[in-house]
């Protein structure tokens, strides 16, 4: 956690919006067990979440500031946040890992909201959750996923500034491609060189870096990189989720080596045009499915049989997490609002089992879309 990530007024504004939404849903409290929500309301930022041993809880009451119910090991750091009600226990505990503290704190609540929907998870033992519910028999637990997603989808100017900064840092590293990548270089070494360059340029961390490389495209973009050397005619794609002050960028760039096939060039230009179409269309009032349709229309011109993407969507929300709500997909009718940060990520088949992906990051403004990423070259770069 850095106490300078945001001023206290940022967290106060988030809390005010949350409590206003809670009143509309008649909720007495929100209960969170996950890192992003705790950080969103408190500024508590630590890598200790990587350990699954201890549960962490945050309660947003209908009035007043949040209440942290956390293992004692996190108390010193939590005290650096703006919270003044921090309740702790020694964890791991043999019989009760914070559950009775939760029951005591929520005992007077009739309606409790929790994340239960798409893109949510319960970060506490299921047996402990059952104990919690048994201890609060008179309370009703309701789905607060739409409430929370609506809050986090619209970023503040301070959040957007951080995301723009990490996008520019990644852009500097992508611009260094001619010095970082070369024919004969093992793919895993190319990944390593890029990650090192991101850190040198100012990224705090690179928790996400995927990609692929093969002739005219790639068939897999989520596997760990192999030691296979890059060869002439290969197309290398790197997709980075580097972070700054706890916020992600998420975009890729494609590079060919020595030469590129006509199929690869055509796919690259098609995907570039698809993102152009979405950038031109994006404005408040449109829906996520509208942006999906705008990109699909461009891609379908190259293949009339295409009816969607095998990866399911053409983009998503971005911020404290690599992927957030909403999704650019045929069924997501989320209305675009100023302040939303969204990725554009169309993909298509190049030939055979080879695919290509292209991704940009943008923010919705009153007058349309503003790119946060340095725009990719309109034609496939050849190194």
Considering the chains and any ligands shown, give keywords for the structure:
alpha+beta; 4-stranded antiparallel β-sheet; 6-stranded mixed β-sheet; Creatine Amidinohydrolase; Creatine Amidinohydrolase, Chain A, domain 1
SS-based class: alpha+beta
Q: What gross morphology would you assign?
A: globular
**CA-based gyration radius:** 23 Å
Q: Which homologous superfamily in CATH is the superfamily of the largest domain? A: Creatinase/methionine aminopeptidase superfamily
Helix content: 25-40%
Provide the low-confidence segments as ranges.
Answer: none
CATH topology of the largest domain: Creatine Amidinohydrolase
Order of helix and strand elements from N to C terminus: HEHEEHEHEHEHHHHEEEEHHEEEEEEE
| Lateral arrangement of strands in the main beta sheet | 4-3-2-1-5-6
Number of domain modules:
2
Query: What's the CATH C level of the largest domain?
Result: Alpha Beta
Architecture of the largest domain in CATH?
A: Alpha-Beta Complex
How many strand elements?
A: 17
- The overall average pLDDT, rounded, is 95
What is the first-to-last residue Cα distance?
40 Å
Q: What is the helix tally?
A: 11
How is the biggest beta sheet arranged? Answer: 6 strands, mixed
- Please state roughly what percent of the residues sit in beta strands, choosing from under 5%, 5-15%, 15-25%, 25-35%, 35-45% or over 45%: 15-25%
């Amino acid at each position: 956690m850095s106490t300078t990530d945001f001023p206290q007024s940022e967290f106060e504004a988030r809390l005010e919006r949350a409590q206003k939404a809670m009143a509309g849903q008649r909720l007495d409290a929100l209960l969170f067990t996950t890192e992003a929500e705790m950080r969103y309301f408190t500024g508590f930022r630590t890598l200790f979440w990587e350990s699954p041993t201890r549960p962490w809880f945050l309660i947003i009451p209908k009035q007043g500031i949040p209440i942290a119910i956390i293992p004692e090991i996190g108390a010193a750091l939590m005290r650096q946040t703006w919270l003044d009600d921090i309740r702790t226990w020694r964890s791991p505990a043999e019989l009760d890992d914070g559950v009775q503290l939760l029951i005591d704190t929520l005992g007077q609540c009739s309606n409790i909201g929790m994340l239960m929907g798409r893109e949510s998870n319960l970060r506490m033992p299921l047996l402990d959750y059952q104990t919690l519910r048994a201890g609060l028999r008179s309370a009703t637990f309701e789905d607060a996923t739409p409430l929370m997603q609506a809050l986090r989808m619209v970023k503040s100017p301070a959040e957007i500034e951080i995301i723009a900064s990490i996008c520019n840092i990644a852009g500097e590293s992508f611009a260094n491609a001619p010095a970082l990548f070369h024919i004969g270089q093992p793919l895993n070494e190319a990944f390593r060189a890029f990650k090192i360059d991101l850190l040198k340029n100012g990224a705090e961390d690179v928790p996400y870096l995927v990609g692929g490389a093969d002739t005219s495209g790639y068939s897999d973009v989520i596997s760990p990189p192999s030691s296979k050397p890059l060869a002439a005619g290969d197309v290398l794609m790197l997709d980075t989720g580097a972070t700054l002050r706890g916020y992600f960028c998420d975009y890729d760039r494609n590079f060919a080596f020595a030469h590129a096939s006509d199929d690869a060039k055509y796919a690259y230009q098609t995907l570039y045009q698809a993102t152009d179409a979405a950038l031109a269309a994006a404005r408040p009032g449109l829906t996520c499915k509208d942006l999906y349709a705008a990109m699909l229309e461009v891609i379908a011109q190259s293949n009339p049989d295409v009816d969607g993407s095998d990866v399911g969507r053409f983009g998503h929300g971005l911020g404290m997490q690599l992927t957030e709500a909403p999704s650019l997909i045929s069924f997501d009718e989320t209305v675009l609002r100023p302040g939303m940060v969204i990725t554009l990520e169309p993909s298509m088949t190049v030939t055979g089992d080879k695919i290509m992906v292209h991704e940009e990051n943008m923010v919705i403004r009153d007058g349309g879309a503003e790119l946060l990423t340095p725009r990719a070259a309109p034609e496939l770069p050849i190194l």
